[in-house]
Write a structure and sequence with these properties.
The protein is α+β, with helices and mostly antiparallel strands and about 425 residues long. The chain folds into 3 domains: about 100 residues, Elongation Factor Tu (Ef-tu), domain 3, CATH 2.40.30; about 120 residues, Rossmann fold; about 170 residues, Jelly Rolls (Sandwich), CATH 2.60.120. Strands 7, 8, 9, 10, 11, 12, 13 and 14 form an 8-stranded mixed sheet that branches. Strands 15, 19, 21, 22, 24, 25 and 26 form a 7-stranded mixed sheet that branches. The protein has a 6-stranded antiparallel sheet with strand order 3-4-5-2-1-6, with no helix packed on it. Helix 2 packs across helix 3.
Amino acid sequence: MKRLLLLLSICTLLTLGGCAATKKAERTDPASLLHVNGTVQEISGSEITLLLKAPEWEKASASPIQDIARRVIAKSILIEGIATDMDGKPAIVREVRGNSVRVSLTEPANYPPGTPVKLKIPKKTIAIVDFEVIKGKEKEIGRVTMEELTSALIDSGQFVVVERSKLKAVMAELQLSRSGLAGETSEQAIGKLLMAELLLTGTLSEQRGEWNINLRLVNVRSGQAVAAINMRSGLFKPSELRDSGQLPGDFDEAFLDPSWLAIRVGKTTFYDASVDRTSGYEGSKRSMRIDFHLQKGVKPLMARVENRKKRDLTLYDGIEFYARATEKMRIMAMILTSQPDDPNKIDGWMGMAIVDKDWEKIRVPFDGMVIARGWIKQGAAGYGSQSGDQVLRLNRVEDIQIGVHQGHNRDNLQGTIWLDGIRFYRD
């Protein structure tokens, strides 16, 4: 029995010793990170150089978006020029080199080398500029925004994220006042106009079924890159990636962009959408052509062309295009928007215009669109979805449609409409 007790005691001591030796580093959640610990290295008047203990977090989730957010947080805990406080005393961050930080206090203070201190982590304002996307062998296919990245940065508690409506206004101002931005990088200029402290931008390149992600985190005050974030990840889910670039709406390429649905529906009552290679606006030989024969109460009720790429259109004011028809008629531009909590709940928004036999430029402002009542009654169910809460969310556009609806014209309607130069505009 004594021998057994001795063995148990030895095992216990070994276990405790092992635990002490292999104790895991304390980890925290970004949302709870208010201070970072440091040790005074040297002091000169009111300027103090600190060695910080970098916080450790649990590994990111399976989502690459969450991984990007964690890296942004880690690279921007403190940035040069930002106000903070050290042990309750106001301070300004003057220089950041890895884990070494130089701060200046408002008043000289006595901090002998080796003194432990706490440095407050201030909340920073960040603007996310749309990422450029290069896919496969294609050149730039547009710019995208990642909704989940914005949400992840907000949820971290470390940032105030600039609203995209403000980004839209700034982009417009930049176009009007480029002469006044001489000597500044575009990132710095955008950041200053947005009153942001940090700006995140970069590129996504598809390579062999993965994203090669290259991001730049820029300190707006200095115009210098705080960090470069380089990583590879699996392709994001469709819900995580939304195109904010222009529509491929000139139809001048040899092949129709795959985001357009140009199809034939029906036999007697029908429509047929295809590229016309003989006629276009302003001498162009290509346009989108929709031939149709629609009858009251017989499906299809609408002849249309549509683009089902998921989009964020918050940077635009509306959609414009050129159109003509075989006779005077009403045409309709329509966008479908979804709810973030349930993407299957979709609302249809429409704007109307009249076209005739000659090419005309049509503008449909988003703020002038109204809910499509026919969508609520039967359109949503026919689309395989449910009608939503009737809130226009331009950051969640699921489908864009342009065409002619029998209900807004005569009962037995047949003919052709041509569309060209379809694009989003910004006033």
